[in-house]
Amino acid sequence: MSDIDVQFCEILPEKIRIQPFTMVVFGGTGDLSKKKLLPTLYHLCIDQDLPEEFSIICFASSERTDEDYREFVREAIEEFSEGTVNWGCWENFREHLFYLPGNFDDEESYRRLSVRLEEITRPTDMGTREIIYYMAVAPEFLPRIIERLSLCKLCKGVFNTRLIVEKPFGRDKVSAAELNRLIGRAFDEDQIYRIDHYLGKETVQNILFFRFANSIFEPLWNRRYIDQVQITVAESIGIEGRARFYEKAGVIRDIVQNHMMQLTSLVAMEPPIGFEADSIRDEKVKVYRTIRQMDIEYIDRFTVRGQYGVGGIDVQDVPGYREEKDVSPDSKAPTFFAGKFYIDNWRWAGVPFYLRTGKRLKKRTTEISIHFRQPPLKLFSTTCEIREPNLLALRVQPDEEISLHIGVKYPGIGKQLYPVNMNFNYERDFTGDVHFPLPYERLLLDCMKGDQTLFARQDEVEAMWAVVDPIIRRWEETPAPEFPNYAAGTWGPAEAYELMQSEGRQWRVW
Ligand code: BG6
């Protein structure tokens, strides 16, 4: 793409300068910190996105010094950064890292934290002092940390604070509401950043730009022209050593309640009245609230659960779920979900949304496909039947692209219809100096700037749980099918195919 052709249109005044801040990472020695958070923060430092004055304090239980922690962070960056690490910034970055040994339950530890924050937090241009609390801990620790922070007056008052909370946010609607209440007693909603890393993906953000910046699709984006929508989040990886979490969570809590619901609402929502956080989040909440509640009969008929058994991915043998470390040999945890949803509003009434996700599927692919209706008549009377109606595929990952499948005449004297693709491909079409921020980079920067658009709001989280709660409940009350019911490296259980066949449709395959 040449420079002359490029038209930029910044929706918000993007160039907000990030002010000095201190980030306190609870669980700064855990898995999430090692694999995602710390390498991302270092990346931001390399890209010169961080201000000169910032500090990162790890609050964790083991005894370590600042120097020990710096070494720990260096190793984490080395092991988990994507691509080759540029160490050019390390000497500077390490000086901003601190360690505070503390016990999550012990008020004294929080008092020491308060003293440390006073010492190292530099004021902003406005004279305020900004603190970001990052909860990189198992969900059970959250309530007690928040309570202690509040007791020690570390939530509001002396410092301007923000709180980043990781998913899963609760286990169901009731516990999510309870957690919201608890956090809400200590922080205001505009201080709370509930992370869903899918919202930080470039291609996910593009759904809104694509829909609302192009007038040719919006008139067709409804029940009159769309026959069905499919959303697939297929993973070829297994549970990657996270049995303790996954055994309790299963696929719906892990992926459907958050990532898939977010994708659904971005595809289905009405145009927001503005691009500010609440305008967008208001529209998303309306979608969740109009998703039809499933009753027991519906769940039994239109949802499918699965668990992977031994199989092969890319010619490599892989174990079944029950053979994974720390998984119970008769585990009932589902690793696959498929289901049909309806959104009961004027735009979508009667259009099925088929959602499918699973671990150890054949290929890693996240895609939204919009399947348009058949033309009303056979082409040229009876001579030509259109077998592949128009389809718009938004590929979120990998090979990020948007493609429109259309039918054209095959060259020659015959009258053959031939399916072709028109496509926009990120890698091919954005070359040169274009930077694709990783989801965590984008989300951390947004939080530092105080932009909540890509974070889930309280009512949003509860509304998403309300959609999936009946399915989780029904699945937990009724015996699971004979697990494992699909082999690793396939597209999931036979029932998922049957679900589509009984609808006269097919899942997309790649
Ligand atoms: C996480 C889930 O939220 O998303 C994981 O807990 C899953 O189980 C991951 O593997 C998928 O993310 P991505 O970005 O690889 O699609």
Helix fraction by DSSP (H/I, runs of at least 4):
25-40%
Query: Helical element count?
Result: 14
Number of domain units: 2
Q: How widely separated are the two ends?
A: 28 Å
What is the percentage of strand-forming residues?
15-25%
Low-confidence stretches: none
Mean pLDDT: 92
Query: Can you list the ligands bound to this structure?
Result: 6-O-phosphono-beta-D-glucopyranose
Structural class: alpha/beta
Q: Please name the CATH architecture of the largest domain.
A: 2-Layer Sandwich
CATH topology label of the largest domain: Dihydrodipicolinate Reductase, domain 2
The main sheet orders its strands as 8-12-13-7-14-15-16-17
CATH class type of the largest domain = Alpha Beta
Q: Label the overall shape.
A: globular
What is the CATH superfamily classification of the largest domain? Dihydrodipicolinate Reductase, domain 2
- Write down how many β-strands occur, each being a DSSP E stretch of 2 or more residues: 18
- Describe the sheet with the most strands: 8 strands, mixed
Note the topology.
Blueprint lengths: L20 E6 L4 H16 L7 E7 L5 H15 L9 H5 L2 E5 L5 H14 L9 E6 L6 H10 L8 E6 L7 H14 L5 E3 L7 H12 L12 E9 L8 H26 L8 H14 L5 H7 E4 L1 E2 L1 E3 L2 E3 L17 E7 L9 E7 L6 E8 L18 E7 L3 E9 L7 E9 H4 L9 H11 L8 H20 L8 E2 L6 H8 L9
Parallel strand pairs: 1-2, 1-4, 2-3, 4-5, 5-6, 7-13, 9-18
Antiparallel strand pairs: 7-14, 8-12, 10-11, 12-13, 14-15, 15-16, 16-17
Helix pairs in contact: 1-2, 1-12, 5-6, 6-13, 8-9, 8-13, 9-13
This protein binds 6-O-phosphono-beta-D-glucopyranose.
